[in-house]
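Work Package 3 (structural annotation) set out to generate three-dimensional models for the target panel prioritized at the project kickoff. During this period the team completed the workflow that converts sequence records into C-alpha cells, so that structures can be stored uniformly alongside our sequence database. As a representative example, we reproduce one entry of 192 residues exactly as it appears in the project archive.
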Amino acid sequence: MAVIMHETSLADAADRLWEELPGHRVEILNGSIVVTPPPDGPHQETCFEVAYEFRQAGAWEAGLRAVPGVGLWLPTGRDDYAVPDVSVVDADYKDALVEKNCYAPHVFHLVLEVTSSNRANDTEIKLGTYARARIPVYVVVDRKHDEVLVYSDPNGDEYVTCSRYKRGQTVPVPPSVGVTLDLSVDTLLDGD
C-alpha cells in the first residue's frame, strides 16, 4: 500500500506497480487496482492457440485481428482499463487509441479471459464491466470448473445470453464476431 499512498492518482499508482512488478498484469477495474501474477504455460498456450485459430478462420480477410494482451479502455471509471487475455478487434483498432496503450471499446468484437488465480475477477467483476462497455461477446475459459462460458448480447450491467460448454464439445463463435469458427473446449481448457 505504501506505493499507492505516495502517488498522485490511481493511474499513476497502477503505472508504478506495472514498473515494479515485471510480468504482472496491472488493471484498474471499477476504480480499484488489480494485479495478476504472470500466467502459467497452459494459459498462454490457450491464448496463442485462440489467436491462431481466428487467423486460420479468415479473421484478417474479414477485417479483424485477434491479439493477446491489448488494453481495453473502460467506461466504468475515469482511469479504468482492462487487459483481456485475447481480443478480437477491428483491423484498424490502432486508430481508436485512447491512452496508456488502451483502445476504445467500440473496436472490440470479442474478449476472452482464461481463469487463473484471479478467477473472481474474470467471472464476476469483468462480466459486468465488459457488459457496460458493450463488448458483444465475452468468453470465459473457466479452468476451475472445467467449462467454457460464452456471454453475448450486453444490456446494461449484464449479458442477456450465457451458453456453457463442457469437455468434448466445441464452442461456436457467435456470428456477430464476424468469422465462422468452432473452438474445442478441451483445447481452450488445456492449452494444447
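The mean pLDDT is 93.
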